[in-house]
Write a structure and sequence with these properties.
It is built from 8 helices and 7 strands, in the order E-H-E-H-E-H-E-H-E-H-E-H-H-H-E. With 260 residues, it is of the alpha/beta class. Helix 1 crosses helix 8. The model has no long low-confidence stretch (mean pLDDT 94).
Length: 260
């Protein structure tokens, strides 16, 4: 299927690895020129090399910096230029007990996982409206649908983003802009491996055995891959998805037990 976005330009945040990389790769394979951001220069350039090899002919630009800062956002927007597709993504805040969190912990979580995507949307939405085409996808978390107690900072900040997007998406729909949220469950990324590696004590076969064991708790019998996550992201950016906006798309292998 041709997604009808060949030649479009995308800014994909936190895309040197994991779900951000999967999204950038899938878009590039659809002929979309991508600008990818991340804090680490080496991993970012390695990711860009992989994308160029997998999607020859598209333009791949890199911006090393922290997208959750004013400077990082300004640099990314400047390098990306005309943006038709924005994929918001940033690492989630650490787990913990809310009794241990002070105001600065909440502000940091809100900055990264609510305010940053809102400010990036603000920077691009009017220009998208002028062209009568725009796609914004926010990579958030399945914890918005089914809160995880130890991830209170993430639960709160991302839920705030979802509430804001619910209103904004309806305001700009008439301008050919769609805004949707992608809620990943358990995907086999480096972050998940670190989480499962109890205190960093598991190595080699022991770690693989733990991964296999925990995968059985997912109804699909496995963890998701960054590649298939990216393909859903690319679909949400397609012309075929033009009538789909303001939605929370849960990708969790059937883990969420509810009907709605």
């Amino acid at each position: 299927m041709d997604f009808g976005i060949r030649g479009r330009n995308a800014l994909v945040c936190a895309a040197s690895k994991g779900l951000g990389f999967g999204s950038a790769l899938a878009l590039a394979k659809e002929g979309v020129n991508v600008t990818i951001t991340a804090r680490g220069v080496e991993t970012l350039e390695a990711a860009a090399k992989k994308i160029r090899e997998a999607a020859p002919g598209v333009t791949v630009k890199t911006v090393a910096g922290d997208i959750t800062t004013v400077e990082g956002r300004e640099q990314a927007l400047s390098v990306a230029g005309e943006i038709d597709i924005l994929v918001n993504n940033a690492g989630g805040p650490p787990p913990g007990d809310f009794r241990d969190w002070e105001r600065e912990h909440w502000i940091k979580a809100l900055d990264a996982n609510m305010i940053t995507p809102i400010l990036l949307a603000k920077a691009v939405v009017d220009k998208m409206a002028a062209r009568k085409f725009g796609r914004i996808v926010n990579i958030t978390s399945s914890s918005v649908k089914a809160p995880i107690p130890v991830l209170g900072l993430s639960n709160g900040a991302r839920s705030g983003l979802h509430g804001f997007i619910a209103g904004l998406s309806r305001q700009v729909a008439k301008d050919g802009i769609t805004i949707n949220n992608l809620l990943p469950g358990r995907f086999l990324t480096d972050r998940l491996k670190v989480t499962m590696n109890k205190g960093g004590t598991l190595q080699g076969e022991a770690l693989e055995a733990e991964i296999a064991k925990q995968a059985t708790t997912v109804p699909a019998g496995r963890f998701g891959t960054a590649e298939e996550f990216g393909q859903v992201c690319a679909f949400l950016c397609s012309t075929q998805a033009a009538y789909m906006t303001g939605q929370n798309v849960l990708l969790d292998g059937g883990n969420y037990p509810g009907s709605f």
